[in-house]
Design a protein that fits this description.
The complex is a heterodimer of chains A (about 400) and B (about 400). Chain A has two domains: about 210 residues, Cytochrome Bc1 Complex, Chain A, domain 1, CATH 3.30.830; about 180 residues, Cytochrome Bc1 Complex, Chain A, domain 1, CATH 3.30.830.10. Chain A starts with a strand and ends in a 5-residue tail after the last strand. In chain A, the strands form two sheets. Chain A has a six-stranded mixed sheet with strand order 1-2-6-3-5-4, with helices on both faces. Chain A has about 400 residues and is of the alpha+beta class. Chain B has about 400 residues and is α+β, with helices and mostly antiparallel strands. Chain B is about 45% helix and about 20% strand. In chain B, helix 1 packs across helix 4, helix 9 packs across helix 12 and helix 9 crosses helix 15. Chain B is globular and about 60 Å long. The chains are: A alpha+beta (about 400), B alpha+beta (about 400). Chains A and B meet through helix 2, helix 4, strand 10 and helix 12 of A and helix 2, strand 7, helix 4, helix 10 and helix 12 of B.
Amino acid sequence: MTESMEFKEKRLANGLDLIGEVNESAKSAAVGFFVRTGSRDETEQINGASHFLEHMLFKGTERLDAFEVNKAFDGTGAQFNAFTSEENTVYYAAVLPEYVIEVTKLWIELMRPALREEDFGIEKNVIKEEIAMYKDTPSFDVMDRCRTLHFGSHPCGNSVLGSEKSIDGLTVEQMRDYFARRYVPANIMFACAGNLDWDQICSTLEEACLKWQGCVTGRKLEHFQGSKKKERIERSNLVCEHICLISPCVSFQDNARFAASLLSIIIGDSVGSRFFWELVDKAIAEAATMQYSPMDGTGVMYSYIRCSSKNVSKVFDIVGDIFHSLSAEGITQEELQKAKNKVLSALVIKNELPMGRLVDLGFNWIYLKEYRTIEDDIEAVKAVNIDEVNSLIKQFKPGDFTQFTIGPASNG
Amino acid sequence: MGEHLDKHTLKNGMIILGEPMEAVKSVAFNFMLPAGAAVLAEGFCGAGNVIADWIFRGAGNKNSRQLNDALDGLGIHRAESIGSSHITIGAVLESDNLAQALDLYADIIQKPRLEKDQFELAKQLAIEEVHALDDEPRHKVMLKLREQFYPHPLGRSTFGNLDELKNLTAEKTQEIVKNNFNLSQTIFSVAGKYDFNAVCRQMEEKFETRNSKFEIPTPPAFGPGESAYGHIDEDCAQVHIGIMTGTVTPASNDYYNMRMAVSVLSGGMSARLFTEVREKRGLCYAIGARYHGLKDAAGIMCYAGTTPDKAQETLDCVISEFNRLGEGIGEEEIERAKVGLKSVLILQSESSSSRAGSIGYDYYMLGRVRSLDEINDKIESTFVDSVLDFLRKNKFKDFTVVTIGPKELTTR
């Protein structure tokens, strides 16, 4: 796979980074703009602006209206979309090689949007519908609320979607101002992967993006231990108890992230993990998973558990036992080896698609300014030893968590 | 597009299909077992979900723990799904481990231990899953829609019916496994990196030549669709709307004209539903329609989620877009639909799990596997006139509508 992959990079004079991994044996290509901005870069007044802005980019430019943008994308057959997190906004497309330049040109154009007041008004309704939809998805809602509870005053606690109130209050001027500060060349990176002509892509970007201006805007990085608070809210329409637990962990910049990702598999993979055997296999919880989320300068472990109301206290007893035994005895060599096998095969499968490769390529650059081959990551996973995982447990105490639950009204 | 199809029939009648892929190191396989929700007898709705869990709780000489450790040891990513016609047991992994994986799956399918104490746990989990569905109205509405749209038992819930699940016994469920895991009617498909001769040799050796005498019932033929409205009152944030109308099955000569019509309606962001419902009116965040095909019945199913005040307007708008389709379609719309469908075909052809799924589905639906070239040619041979002609012959007359939310709607 990697034999035929070639890494390319270029920094334009205005600070915009371009990177690519060319793989001529692929049938498709993927391209994307990664913008280092998300809800943690917002103030309370403009909470939700990053995500709303992501929607507004599709509303067009001075030259193109929204329908023309959508037609232009669909005319290439691209699978395109965007997502916003606490710290990144990513615009991407998977496309056949013959359309790579066309799609790249389209993204370049959209990165300088018109942000028209009229579009802003209509899209506000769409955003509010999205907020309502996630309110009806308790598995998502509980994670969002738990993150806010965990991070407290730290900006990583800001909701990505914002609230109905913050979205109502947001003005198009505030969005334009946010755009001007955040979508500056040094805060943006272009990445591509798969079957494509690097030189042609590069000159396309150089020609169009050199005129982008603006100064670097920073981001204050602080690790956060978490509030360790515990809260519960009730919803009369719910049947199950939805539980989210968050504990601190290492950041993306920390080499221990590979050990952390193995630890999350050992504790909470959907099958074969400690959560699985103690909670799901025994039918005490219907779902119980843990995920490691490495971030800029900090990181967290998220657990999500869904069970019936009558099993809640049993679930917490068992979770307590699992974390206690981890901190007292650590993990076993067998567990580590199984987790490695799962992570390694997932790496291979994901990276077979240019779209999967684009995501890893982009985030490694965003966080580390580093090109890592698939083999680099495979070696790093293989090299993790039991002591590294156990010292993470000692250092971060996953049993010492922030907890949020959403469930039905309790009896009495 | 140069892909090759391997095909072999085992002595026991099991069909082995394969599609080798040069650029990958992974391999994916699926067993399609004729034990889907629609082919089980009355009173056993949900048994498939219990079975898909129970067979992994020990098989051959391995107990539950040993079996799952062995699967994890091979880095297998499992995927079990229950459909109307089949239970599909799937896996994707690194190709070096394929032979060992097939040994394990031969035991899981032919020699599951099916122990009684494990049955109770599997059943309890299936019951909890039905409860969990109550907390996900977006998902639940589409299951209810299928139940209401298809003639019984074709649309039977793949999750299960609570009462029937509660009454399910280990003895009866064992009998279903014995009868319905009929190897002569099982389709095995593999895609990615594999040696077909070696796979066939191993399958012939590991799978018995015996055959279940049990006749898998053929679900009743498709009757005329009934226009009906069902509402579930629930205090959630949005009204979740499911809309379905009948159309041709995958084997129909008009299949590609229908697919083009669905693409014009909802193939991309420039398609009609997205443009009219979301872009122009800001009524929804999530809006889309797709084809849902069973062997003997099929429909176009649409989901829209919106807050109560906008729900009636949304439903009316969606139905009017369905009805407007036959009045005229532009050349450009057909061109975009063609590019979109062809592009998806190639993008999916890079994924081993996607290809293993497709070739198995084709074989069940059509009795043969379509080549990508054939699909491409069929898409190319559709035109505005052929799609309009299809729509005139197959007018959208009846709409089945299901809503979940705080407000009941009116259908006309």
